[in-house]
What does this fold into?
Amino acid sequence: MLISSSYATSPIQTYKQSETKPQDVVDEAPTSQGDTVTLSKPALYLAAKEKGREFSNSFVMQVANQSNQKAEEMLAAFTYGLNNPLIDISSLNPATGNGSTYTRTGQPVTDASEVLFASQNESLLKQNEILIAQEREKGASAATILEKVMQSIDQQPQSYKDKIDWSRLSS
It folds into this structure.
């Protein structure tokens, strides 16, 4: 593990160019009020219709298509059950409360990262509630709505998806 300071060499200098290790971004840039984007209902609808990623053949959708009751349960789970990141507490120091990391990325859990996740999650929840209401008005099945919610989640920032281990959930 390379620990850098103002006196240490950079990772590029430490490894030959062909051995350069990929660098993870720990936090996204902080946002200000001017960075907030509010999407209209038609824009949310169009975003949900985008076919950037199909989940039709995923295991989740195979299970959801077995019965409407199962699809409703899974829709509730994907809409309201992903509101906590997966956190590894194996290195947690109970005295200080420090040492926990995000399970998928290994990045440390900080106050800033928790605030960012909560903000992203709240925004996604509101977006999905609007989407669900619109789709129910049209008479869409729970499985169809579930796939659109999954597409909505899939459009979130990678940092958010990593914290809930989306790649595992969406397969």
